[in-house]
Amino acid sequence: MELCSVASIMSLGSLAVQRTRLCSIALRVLLKLLGFAPSSLKKFCKDVHPPLTEAIVGTSPELPQDVLMGIFATLEIPDVIRAGAVCPSWHSAFTSLTSLGQYKLPQTPCLLYTSESSDDSAAYLYSITEKRSYKLTLPDPPIRTRYLIGSSHGWLVTVDERSEMHLVNPITCEQIALPSVTTIEQVKPIFDQYGVLHKYEFSWHTGLRGSNSPSIFALDKLRDVLHYKAFVFPDTSTGSYIVVLIHNSMFQLSFARVGDDKWTWLPPNEDYSDCMYKDGLLYAVSVMGELHTLDLSGPVVVMKTMISIPRKYDYEYTYIVQAPWGGLLLIWRICEDYELEPDPGASVFWNTTEFRIYEVEAAGSELKEINCLRDHVLFLGHNQSLCLGAEEYPSLRANHVYFTDDNFLWTTGCKNNHRDMGTLNLDDNSKEELVPPQLWSNSPAPVWITPDLRKINLDSRGG
Description:
By secondary structure, the protein is mainly beta. The protein has 7 helices and 30 strands. The chain has a 5-stranded mixed sheet, with no helix packed on it. The protein has a 4-stranded antiparallel sheet with strand order 3-2-1-30. Helix 5 packs across helix 7 and helix 6 crosses helix 7.
């Protein structure tokens, strides 16, 4: 699938027509050459003030494509897309870089959100590094009609008005349909007299308990109770990706490989809140403090319990994170400031008050509490949980948690309530807004995403 047009990605449209801006990008690229100065810059700097033109235009031959690709590979995604808009030869280098999967520069996470002041197909990407937002035009169905239930490796996991799920890359506009919701263990289709799907039957059974009677939901209502959180993990055994879904009843697990025609249920455990994938194992943590590993590589899924910790707070969420130094972190998100049964006229609200961080000891049976992340930061929410080094990402604040709202209540009747999001300083638990709340709409809830230009190769999936 083709990349989004420059005009679609940026109001990257507005940037594409600003010659001075493009020449500025060109100059930064050329400085990386340590001496190269392509004469082709004259082609697109005609309208720039003469001194600027003379400063960046030389008489050397046009740069070879492999050299341009090497330079572009060192730029963050907004800059590499701008550079690709400079002229045909630069665009060709940009296209080759992305289509060959050679663009792998680690990106600073961005906040993806929608706005009530924009059209339904538009989303915005807020860059922490540049402190500015970029407008994106995404493929149908319109993004504001969808739920955002996950973000991993540059991919959003969305749920549309028929409660069906798609992967969407907001940078490339690539979109992939996931297996039908009717292939989930607890869901059955209901057809009308003409054979048209018009409702779903949902069973509340789990691997640990039965169900009295199923519930019936309209096509657009099932997503209010079924979907909670989803993850996209690279599957090194096939070269494709695995999608893991936490869903009701009781926050169970199901998974599918991209290209599969059905979801595979992972009973019997429940109450899961976060997952990660490492060395062929799925790690899943529950709100009850249990950490399980599941081996998905064989014909039969093998589950083991690594650790079990009693729950300490009434209102908390748990996360599992791969630390840059190789360890595993378990994180408790605690909300002691909340009101779920407000007086008439008041609103439901919940506010994060602190995070408790523990490292899993090497033996895997004990936890060590960590009071300070020093030069590291956390990104938590509906995204794949991340721990990054502040030295590698200088625009981030060390020893801070960047969090968005992943409370399950926001899809169950609280779509327009406030969103619990911001940054929290682990030194003193003080919080700040990262983006003014008037910029984003509450539904779909904003989510962290790490931009990625790589595509999913459907031809490489397992059989």
